[in-house]
Structure formats: C-alpha cells, structure tokens
Write a sequence for this structure.
C-alpha cells in the first residue's frame, strides 16, 4: 500500500500522510497561487508546492523537507491518484447498496418533523384525552409526512427520548453515588433489548393472527418508543420530589400512554367497523382487540420495570 | 430478563434450536395439534388460516430455512464458548 518512494525515509509520520491527504486532494499537479506556507526546501519546491496547495490544511513547514522528496516522486503521485479513485469507487458502492440494508429513503419520512409537530405530539403523549381525530391523513396513497399531521408516527421523538433516558438514568445513578460509566451502556443496552423483544413479540402476534395492516416495522418501533417520554418525566420528578413524585407522574404517564396506544393501534390493527365504535363481533375481531389491549398494557409495565431501580 | 442485547441473542439462538429439535412424529398424531400435513390443502383458501395452522407453517418454515445456518452458528458458538467461557 505504501508507494516505493517511502521506503527511503520511513518515519511513522510519513506513512500517515497518504491516508490523511488522499481525500482532500482533488486536483493533483495544479500549481496553487495561495500557498499557506513558504516552502523553504529549494530543490523540491516545484512538485511539493503543487501537492501542498490544494489541501492547504496547515501542516507545519517543519515537516516540509523530509516529505517533499516523497511527494514529488511520480510514483507517489500515481499512488495518490489511485487511492483517491479507490475511495470514490468505494463511496459509490456504499451509496448504491446502502438502500438494501437500511431503508434510508423510508427513514427520511420519519424524521421530517418540525418544532410545532414535536410540541403537539409531546402534548398528546401527556394528555391524549381531548384529542378527537386519530386518523393519519393520506395524500394519494402515501401517508402525509409528520410535519403536516400530528397523528403520523415519527422516529425523532423516540430516538431523542431514548438518548435522554440514558442520560437521565446516568444522572439519577450519579445522585445516588451508584454511577459508573459502564452502567450507562448497560441501561442503553437493556432498554434496546426490551424494545427489540417487544417488536419481535408484536410482529409474531400480528403474523399469527393474520392481521392485514399497514403497520410497518418502523411504525411499530416509533409507537413503542413513545413510552420513553413518560419514563423521562417520571425519573425527573422522582429526582426532584422523591418516591411520591415519581409514582404520581409515572402513574399519570402510564395512563396517558395506555390511552394513546389503544387509540392509535385501534385504527391500525382493528377492522374499520370496530374503529368507529361498533361493538366487535366474531373471534377474529376479538383476537385483534386482545392484541391491542396486550400491547397497550405492556407499555406501563415496561415503563415501571425500566425506571423503578433508578429512583430510591 | 433481557438485560443486554447479547443475552437476547443467546435467547434467540436457544429458541431457534428448540424449534429445530422438535419431534416430527409426535406432531403428526392428533393428540395436540392439527397435522403437519398442511401441504395438501390449508383448509379453505378464501378464509384466514387460523392460529394453529399459521403456527405450524411458521415452525415448518423455520425448520427448513434455519437447518443449515443453525449448524454453522452452533459450531461457532460452541467453539467460542469453549475458548472464552
């Protein structure tokens, strides 16, 4: 990987140069009028100046002369050109194939939020009792972006709430002198493991009950991530006001998340007739109702399980 | 329960192993489940299949798909556990 010229002067600093400078160097061999530093090595100033100009990142001139010979070598020029073309090819390959593993375009929909939406959604998570219309608006067969409809699921709030939960857990442990850095990782890992388990259990139940729903996996992750908001509220109140505050706020948030989940999932899982309040008939609808209730009931349980050990 | 992602992976591997070692003959009889013989006729193509046949389908497909990868993953896990405890 090192060009032949580097074998002569082999300080460790030199070997780092190709990898650091490969990306910014886009035009090789172009004489740059604005050199940042005067090149004092007279013999190799030509080739070195041409290499130095475009990158111009402020490398100190003390290292100029030993590297100048290395960089003016045509073999190293070729090596750098080859390296940069390899990097460009690699980038193209990643860009082409990233969509196969991580659905980037689909994820962008879930992050199309603005401040007003976040505010309204947080209000809805804490007080869903007055909200009347829970339908997601559609625009020619695709759901409207969260920016335009407060009922649409998003991933911004769950992601931020999860990170805040880990930080608040660290804060809570710190105030009780129980903190150590690996505990943060343990909290995050544990919460993620519970989330994964929930998602898998719900997907399995949806498959077994053969529900024809447009509830995608990412939607499900978004809905299940909304409970972190209540958990954060509970822990913060527990830090400020002790156990009484914790239980009060957690109880309130549990009720709110329960109602929120039922009202949201009812539209997605249950058939249209049941969603309008008509009493359910038949075993199929009953199973779906049980599933919705089970999912909604699991939220308060998990909220308690993941936070009670943080508040003493 | 489920304290880390790693323990979740372990649990998942053990569950898939459990599905893979189920005894076929005992499930063909009528004592507990509707038969494995769901190859011929899923009891009405217009209706929804019902939980038991969905479960049978799931178990059968998991066994078919995961047979070879399970051998590989189990061997790797055994070697790693022997080496690193």
């Amino acid at each position: 990987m090192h060009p032949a010229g580097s074998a002569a002067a082999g300080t460790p600093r030199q070997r780092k140069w190709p990898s650091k400078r490969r990306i910014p160097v886009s035009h090789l061999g172009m004489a740059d009028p604005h050199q940042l530093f005067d090149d004092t090595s007279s013999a190799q100033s030509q080739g070195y100046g041409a290499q130095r100009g475009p990158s111009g990142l402020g490398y100190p001139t003390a290292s100029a002369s030993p590297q100048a010979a290395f960089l003016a070598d045509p073999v190293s020029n070729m090596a750098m050109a080859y390296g940069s073309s390899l990097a460009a090819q690699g980038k193209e390959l990643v860009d082409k194939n990233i969509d196969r593993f991580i659905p980037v375009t689909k994820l962008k929909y879930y992050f199309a939020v603005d401040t007003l939406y976040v505010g309204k959604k947080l209000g809805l998570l804490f007080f869903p009792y007055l909200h009347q219309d829970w339908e997601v608006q559609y625009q020619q067969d695709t759901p409207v972006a969260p920016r335009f409809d407060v009922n649409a699921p998003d991933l911004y709030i769950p992601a931020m709430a999860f990170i805040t939960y880990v930080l608040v857990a660290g804060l809570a442990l710190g105030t009780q002198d129980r903190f150590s850095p690996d505990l943060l990782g343990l909290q995050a890992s544990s919460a993620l493991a519970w989330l994964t388990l929930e998602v898998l259990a719900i997907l399995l139940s949806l498959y077994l009950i053969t529900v024809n729903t447009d509830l995608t996996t990412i939607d499900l992750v978004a809905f299940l991530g909304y409970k972190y908001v209540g958990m954060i509220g509970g822990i913060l109140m527990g830090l400020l006001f002790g156990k009484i505050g914790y239980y009060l706020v957690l109880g309130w948030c549990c009720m709110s998340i329960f109602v929120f989940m039922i009202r949201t999932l009812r539209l997605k899982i249950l058939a249209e007739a049941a969603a309008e309040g008509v009493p359910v008939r038949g075993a199929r609808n009953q199973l779906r109702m049980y599933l919705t209730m089970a999912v909604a009931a699991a939220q308060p349980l998990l909220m308690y399980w993941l936070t009670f050990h943080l508040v003493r | 329960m489920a304290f880390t992602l790693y323990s979740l992976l372990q649990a998942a591997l053990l569950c898939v192993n459990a599905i893979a070692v189920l005894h076929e003959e005992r499930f063909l009889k009528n004592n507990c489940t509707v038969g494995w013989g769901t190859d011929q006729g899923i009891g009405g193509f217009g209706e929804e299949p019902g939980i038991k046949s969905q479960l049978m389908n799931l178990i059968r497909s998991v066994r078919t798909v995961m047979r070879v990868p399970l051998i590989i993953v189990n061997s790797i896990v055994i070697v790693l556990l022997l080496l690193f405890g």
Notes: Chain B has a mean pLDDT of 79. The longest helix of chain B spans residues 51-84.
